[in-house]
Amino acid sequence: MTSMTRKSAAIMLAGIAGLYAGAALAKPSRQVSLTSERMAQLQQVNSHVNSTVREVSDLEQYGREDVWALPTSGKGDCEDFALLKRKMLIERGWPASSLSITVGATSQGEAHAVLTVSTSQGQYVLDNLTSAILSPAQTGHVFHARQAGRGWITASGERTAEPVADLPVARFARVAHTSP
């Protein structure tokens, strides 16, 4: 996420210092049978969004951090990419319950959001940092929370009613580097 500084990430992390970064996230409620056609849809949507949306920070675009919006201007940050990919897959017949926004940190400790897809062959990540469709383990990211309905479920299994669009992605940055 381009708009996040280390200082602001640290401030936003104060409330979740107890998260255990190594715990597996609970699976979304519905898995999709992964066929070659479905995998092609994932690849097409991921590549299309990654190549047509220009990455800019929320601070640059809106004058404030953590604005969750579809990138209708052709610009957005990581969660905006994920929201558009989710919308496009739903329009192609994917059940919304198989698609979750997942937040965490990149291997460099930067706050990041991706779209996670639950399939019969496991979970896959659609990420604005790569055109490849990867398993969560292959991304190099550490994931801390996943969309669960209108709220979140953390890696430790804790549920929060905090609305998805109101949760700052930066809140989950750097936990991997500070957790036991």
TrEMBL record:
Keywords: Signal. InterPro entries: Transglutaminase-like_Cys_pept. The keyword Signal applies. Residues 1-26 form the signal peptide. PANTHER family: BLR5470 PROTEIN, PTHR39327. This is Transglutaminase-like cysteine peptidase.
